[in-house]
Amino acid sequence: MNNNTHNYISNSDIKIGLPAIEFKQLLNNRRTIIISDENLFCLYPQVFEGFDKIILPSGEDTKSLKTVELLISEFVKLNLDRNSFILGFGGGVICDITGFVASVFMRGLNFGFIASSLLAQIDAAIGGKNGVDFGNYKNYIGCFNNPEFVICDPILLKTLPDNEYKSGLGEVLKYAVIQSKNELFNYLNQNAEQILAKNQNSLNVVVNQCVKTKSDIVAKDPFDKGFRQILNFGHSFGHCIEKIENIPHGIAVVYGMRIALKLAVKKGLLSSDSQNNTLKLFAKFGFTEDIILSDEHFKILAGDKKKNLDLIKLVIITDIGKPEFVNFKIDEIKNLLK
Ligand code: GLY
Fold first, then answer.
1. Whole-number Å distance between alpha carbons of 181 and 186
2. Does residue 214's CB lie within 6 angstroms of at least one atom of ligand 1?
3. What residues does each domain of the chain span?
4. How far apart are the CA of 279 and the centre of ligand 1, in A?
């Protein structure tokens, strides 16, 4: 499945398996500025050779309006014009900020991504969401705009720290559980060892399946008015756990999915067999533990932006591949989890 081009999203080419360095063939001789972070600049200096570049500090703090201002003043110094091209080379933070600044500078320049983390390849770089944080409020300033292309090169994942790879696998498992035809679920069950060993062909299949699943969902609700929130399976609990436990996003999402599975079984919406099969798949990827929610978690859950009065709209599954929205009262969640 190497070098596949997928036009799953109307105006983005998702190039899965294309070596990152081949990005030059997609630029059509346009003047290009690369935005990236310190880690990638050290790891892959060959990508930057011959290009103007802006290297940002790694980490979520970079996703701010202050960085947008800094980038715009660099663009002005570099004399960019409306024909210039902006390339974001990085994980979720770099893709989000590059997409945003490219979309607003001079009312919008063309841009593309080389997604360097598993999370970026299967989620952040796909679906047209760009933005920055506003203080503690994540992604409060942003826009929908698709990159011209996204390169997903599995070789880049070799240098990803273990915890970040595990975090990406957490989101892969989410797609596997919500994907309607169970193709990814079955593939992960049969190929866990190869995926954990970062086998390149297996990673191409996994990224391909995730991108297709996300793109199909986004195509039905590109501006996130309702249905797209099915992608938030495990995320309501996951967000509280991520904050309190201070653990990577995708790892917290797996804890969140375990809670959502338990709730669905307790409410009689999901069979114990389907729950057990899902938990067995999670275990193959090293996810075996539960987190018991505390009052602190519930406080954050009650303030979650998906809240409507005292009701929380959660994504649960009624079977593997069958996600649904169900409203829960906070007290009901507390009782069912006792
Ligand atoms: N990461 C969820 C979405 O793109 O809607």
1. 10
2. no
3. 4-159, 165-336
4. 24
10 pLDDT higher than 60: no
Question: pLDDT at position 304, please?
Answer: 56
* CATH, domain range 165-336: 1.20.1090.10
The response to whether residue 129 sits with its C-beta less than 6 Å from ligand 1 reads: yes
Query: Under CATH, which number does the domain 4-159 receive?
Result: 3.40.50.1970
3-state secondary structure of 288: coil
Closest Cα to atom 2 of ligand 1: 231
pLDDT at 307: 52
Ligand 1 pocket residue status of 323, Cβ below 6 Å:
no
Any ligand 1 atom below 6 A from CB of 238: no
Return the ligand 1 atom nearest residue 229 CA. Answer: 5
Q: Does residue 160 register a pLDDT over 60?
A: yes
Confirm whether pTM is higher than 0.90: yes
Per DSSP (E only), the strands in the chain are 4-9, 12-16, 32-37, 52-56, 85-90, 110-115, 129-134, 137-144, 149-152, 307-308, 311-319, 322-329
- Cα(219) to ligand 1 centroid in Å equals 12
Backbone angles phi, psi at 166, to 5 degrees: -60, -40
Q: What is the band of 156 on the pLDDT scale with cuts at 50, 70, 90? A: very high
Q: Is the CB of 171 under 6 A from ligand 1?
A: no
